[in-house]
Amino acid sequence: MDVSLQFLGAAHCVTGSKYLLTLDDQATRHQVLVDCGLFQGLKELRLRNREPLPLTAAAVELVILTHAHIDHSGYLPKLVRDGFRGRILCTEATADLLSIMLLDSAKLQEEEAAFANKKGYSKHHPAEPLYTQIDVEHMLPLVESVAYDAPVTLLNGLLTLTFRDAGHILGSAIVELAVQGAQQRKQLVFSGDLGRYDNPVLFDPTPIAQADVLLVESTYGDRDARVEDPEAELAGVVNEALDRGGVLVIAAFAVGRTQTLLYYLKKLLAEGRVPQVPVYVDSPMGIRVSDLYPRHPTAHRLGHGNMFDFPGMRFVTEAQESKGLNAKTGPAIIISSSGMCTGGRIVHHLFNRLPRPQDTLLLVGYQAEGTRGRRLQNGETTVKMFGELVPVRCQVRHLDGFSAHADRSELLRWLGQFQAPPKHTFIVHGEPAPAEALAQTLRQEQGWLNVVVPDYLEVKMLFESI
Ligand SMILES: [Zn+2]
Ligand SMILES: [Zn+2]
């Protein structure tokens, strides 16, 4: 059997994760996709979502997902729209997250297309969503969930899949694939996105000891993002904001970040390190995702029960109540999304709060170039919202210690657990500089010989006649 791999995304960039694994027996060819993500961010990357994939969707037998983030799962409904009818395998929590996140993604696609058509951006070519909520409904029945650490035999024994906890978001996994040739068995490991060590909510990334082929992410391949004490930093910002007598608005991703913040706020309140003020979670997706944690007690460290509830905390579900928060002037905390201030309910809070000197905006985590969050982080004094120039007179703070990605030292710690260098190592899911930096470190400091940063659409023959 011949085994090859094609890099259909996350090559020299962090989005669009898709790896096409082809097992060629003389008689038959099997095609498997590991991850099926959307390209996001810069326009030149997003346009790739509209280009046809170099495959026949109906011929792909399996899709294996590392986790539910849109840059790893968001192309699935399009693949189904194009004819894919195979099995989609992921962990139990990922399956639950998928329906929430992909329906939201489809709704966003539909709204963007409708907006473009209304504005007449593309008069001659009406804008079309990449997929719709109906495509997602067609896709969801194909999803099968698999427990962590439980090997599953696929393709009549040619492939064995095992998910290992990656500690990145709820349900995230490292994918181990054992390929059974006529004479040899080979082990392929896809790191997916790796989480951090000693996170209070999620487990450490599972150590992996052996691989013939390794794909490892490199988001922070060139820098350490460890903050001494994220809890104390958060307490500092909260106290400073509340001392001003105003409202603290926290922009946080709905998946993962919102729950980590709630965990810390609950702890800080219980320990009396921040004052008792009303806390509003104004993020419909954040609320639905928080509800998933008790349903998956083995996928995180918090166990059973209402882990995010505390006195004074309120989940805001109704749009009316969300708008009502605009009238609040006294000390309060509002957690809302999107995390980079590009859409969602956070936008009306910003419109309302940015001009108020007594209020504070806290940005949590990475703010991508071109986003409103990045402009605010950079200290711009006006931002455009709802067609108006809004003056920024509130305090703007930024905390970086809550990243969901392993930093450079943590990547090396995880990589250091391999007993021997893999035969092939591919550095993926990183901008060119961090990917190359990690490759150099592995070559020079660890003595790993075959380390490659693959190109977009590159095909690699991994094994011949095994
Ligand atoms: Zn991710
Ligand atoms: Zn990712």
From TrEMBL:
**Keyword Glycosyltransferase among UniProt keywords:** no
Q: What sequence ranges are listed for the domain Beta-Casp? A: 258-376
Gene3D superfamilies given for it?
Answer: 3.40.50.10890, Ribonuclease Z/Hydroxyacylglutathione hydrolase-like (3.60.15.10)
UniProt protein name: MBL fold hydrolase
The UniProt GO MF terms for this protein read: hydrolase activity
Q: Does the keyword Hydrolase apply?
A: yes
| Domain Metallo-beta-lactamase, first and last residues per copy | 15-257
**What is the scientific name of the source organism?**
Hymenobacter frigidus
Family matches, as SMART domains: Beta-Casp (SM01027), Lactamase_B (SM00849)
Q: What keywords would UniProt list here?
A: Hydrolase
